[in-house]
Amino acid sequence: MKHTDSITKLNLEQKCALLSGDTVFTTRGCKNAGVPSITLSDGPNGVRKQAGAADHLGLNPSVPATCFPTAATVACSWDPALGEEIGRAMGEEAAAQEVAVLLGPGLNTKRSPLCGRNFEYFSEDPYLSGKMAAAYVRGIQSEGISACPKHFAVNSQELRRMASDSVVDERTLRELYLTGFEIVVKEAHPKALMSSYNLINGIYANENAHLLQDILREEWGFDGAVVTDWGGSNDHALGVKNGSTLEMPAPGGDAVRELLAAVRSGKIAEADVDARLDELLTLVLDTHAAVERHSRSFDADAHHALARRAAGESVVLLKNDDALLPLAEGTRVAVIGDFAETPRYQGAGSSAVNSIKVDTFLDCLNDSGLHSVGFAPGFDRQGKPDAAKQAEAVALAAEADAVLLCLGLDEIKESEGLDRSDMKLADNQIELLQAVREANPNTVVIVNAGASLETPWLAHCKALVYGALGGQAGAGAMVDVLTGKINPGGKLAETWANAYADTPARDHFAGPGRTVQYREGLYVGYRYYQTAGVPVAFPFGHGLSYTQFAYSDMHADAHSATLTVTNTGDRAGAEIVQLYVAKPNAEIFRPAQELKAFAKVKLAAGESKTVTLTLDDKAFRYWNTRTDSWEVEGGTYELRVGASSADIRLTAAVEVIGTDALNPYAGKALPHYQSGKVQTVPDAEWETLLGRPIPDDRVKIDRNMTLGELNHGRSPLGWLVWAVMTARLNASYKKGKPDLNVLFQYNMPLRALAKMTNGAISMGMVDGIVMEVQGFWVIGLVRVIFEAVKNVILNAQLENRLRNS
C-alpha cells in the first residue's frame, strides 16, 4: 500500500467513515491523519459546481462556467486532439473552482436512440467513444485533478436506471459495452471511475466482482478509485470487498455502521477496507495538492472561443442539394424557429452548466454578412399548434432568398431521468417546414438535438445541417458554417435510422419489467443495419463538405493501412478517414464490418497527404466464451477505408494469423445471430447465446422496489404515494418541463432513501417501509419509528466520536 503510515493512524471506525461522502459533493476528512476533504463536481461538458444548497440533478444554481458542446456533439468531430483541448479547459476551470474530481466524461455505448441521456455520450461505436473519452481524460488530468469516466457499465436507459438489470451475454458485454472503458483505462489512466446504477446479469455494478475486480483491476490494471453514482450503492460492504472505493453522496452514519458490522462479522476483512482506503487517499492527496497549487482564475474569453471552435468542427452537413450552402455575402435570409431566439444548446439534468454567456443565432447573424429580412418564431416550443405563428413565418419566408429554419428537440425530450418516447420532431415543426418550403424552396433546416431523429420530412428542405447541442458558443459556430467561414467537416457518430421501428433493440428497450434484455447482442447501430441489410436515412460516419476528397494508393498489412487523400475541390477542408475491418465468410459470427481506426486530415485546396491508419490489438479480436479470453480467427480479412461506413473508397485483403481457439458456438443453433437479423430472436436462441435461462422479470417487494412500483404493493399508504408522484409527474409533462426531482424519485429504489438523505433515513427504516408495503402495516410503521429514533441517537454518537478522535 502507498499510504500505510496514514492508514495506521486511523481506527476502524474512522477508516469506514472515510469511504463515504460527507456532503452531496464532498468527501470526509480526518485532520489527525492528515486527510483533507475534496470536492467532486458534475462535468461532462462543463463544470457544475453548485453555489448554494447542493443537489445532484442540477436543480439549484451553480457557479458560472463555460458550457462546451456535449459529448454527442464533439464526437462528430472525430478529433481526439480537440477533445483533449476541451478536457484541459474543463480541468482548468474545475481546479480554479477548487474541484478535485470532475465527474465525466460519459461514454456509454448508445444502444438505442431513445435513451434520454444520449446527449452525454459519444457514440454507438465503442472504439470511437473510447478514443474520444481517453482524450478528454488526458486533458482534464493534465491540470492535476482527476477525471471520472462514467457510467461503468452497460447503462443504456433512464427508466428504472437505479434498479434495472442489464441482461447481456459475455461476448457482447466485452466487445460493445466494455471496450470503450478499456481504451480509457489503458490509454488515459483515469484516477477515478464511476460505477453505474444498474445491475449487470443480476449483480449491481458497484458490487460486481467480475466487473470491478476481474476485469477492471486485474485485467486492465486500474489502480484508481471507483466512485459510486449518486445513491448507486446497494450493499456497501460488498462493494468495498469487490472494488468500490467511495460511496456518494452522503449516506451518513448508517453506511459507517454497515462496514463496521461487516468487518466484525467476517463478511469482509479489514484488509478490504484498507485497500479501498489506500485508493481513496491516493486520489484525495494527489488532487488536493494540485487544487491548492492551481490559480483561481481562467481565461473565460479563450474558453468561449474554444467552445465555438469545437462546435464548428463538430457540425455535420447532412444534405446540400444544388450546393445551396454556403450562403454568399448579402444573401437575404428569413430566420424562422423559436430555437434561433432561445437556443437549445445543452441537455437537462446533472450535466446542465450555468453558462458564463450564451450566444444566440439571431445575435450572431448580425455580423455574418447575410442580410436578415426578419425573424419569426414559427411554432410553439412545446408542440402546441399555433396557426398565427405559422402564417407569420410563411409570409416572412416568401420575402427572402433563403430560409434558415431552426428546428430541434425541446427540453422535455432529452433529459437525465427520462427516455424519449419517439425519434420524431414535433408535428408543428414538420407542418411549419412543409408550409415554409411551399413559400420558399431554398430552405435550410438547422437541427439542434442531442440524438438522432426520423427524417421523413427530408424532401422538404434543400439543405440539412446538424448542430447537435453546441454549447454556449454553438450559435456562432453554426453561422460560420452557413456562411462558409468554416467548411463543415463533422461526421455522424451514430446512425440515423429511417424509423424507430427499424432499430435493433426496439422490443427490449425501457420495457415494463425489471430486466433489460440485450437480446440484439453485438448488433447495435451500424453493426446491425449493415449486417441485416436495413436501409438508413444517414449512415454512421456520414457528413458532407463544401469541397471533395479523393482516396488513392492504398497499401496495407495486418498492422496498418497507408493511403493518399487529396482535396480535389477549390477550398480548404477536413476529411475524416475511416477504416473498417471485415471478415467475409467468418466462422465466428460477427458484424459485417467494424470501425478499427480513423484519422482527421486537414487539406488545402488541391493538397494531398499520406495517411497511415494503425491497427491495434483490438483490430481482429473477438471474445471467446469457451476459452474465456480474447482470440483471433485466422484467415483473410478486408480492410475497408472510406468516407463513411456506407461510402467505402478503397479495400485491401490482409492475412491474419489466428489463435486457433475452438469455436464457442459449434453445435449451437444461432441463426439470427449468424445473419444479424436480431429484432425478433426467439427465447430459446437467446438463452443459447446467454448460456442460462432468461431471468425472472417480476416486480418484487423488497429494498429495490422503486417508488414508481409502489402500486404493486399491498399498502394503501404506498398506493397513495405512488398516485401523488404519478400525478405530479404527469402534470410536469403537460407543462412541457419535466420535474427532474420527481423523475429521479419515481425511478429510485426504496433502499436509495437511505443513501440520498444525508443520514436522515437508515436502512433499518427502509426495511420498515418494505414491511409496510408488504402489507404488515402496523408492524412496518412501528419499525420505521423505532429505527428512526435509533438512527438519530447512533448518528449523533458517531459524529461526536469522529469529531473528537
Automatic annotation (TrEMBL):
Q: Provide the family line.
A: Belongs to the glycosyl hydrolase 3 family.
Question: Record's InterPro entries?
Answer: Cellulose_deg_GH3, Fn3-like, GH, Glyco_hydro_3_C, Glyco_hydro_3_C_sf, Glyco_hydro_3_N, Glyco_hydro_3_N_sf, Ig-like_fold
Q: Which domain of life is it from?
A: Bacteria
Q: Where are the transmembrane segments?
A: none
The entry's protein name is: Glycoside hydrolase family 3 C-terminal domain-containing protein
Upper lineage is: Bacteria, Bacillati, Bacillota, Clostridia, Eubacteriales
Keyword match Hydrolase: yes
The Fibronectin type III-like domain is annotated at: 575-645
Q: Which Pfam families match?
A: Fn3-like, Glyco_hydro_3, Glyco_hydro_3_C
> Which SUPFAM superfamilies would you find in this protein's record?
(Trans)glycosidases, Beta-D-glucan exohydrolase, C-terminal domain
Per the record, the GO terms for biological process are:
carbohydrate metabolic process
**Annotated GO MF terms:** beta-glucosidase activity
Q: Keywords, A to Z?
A: Hydrolase
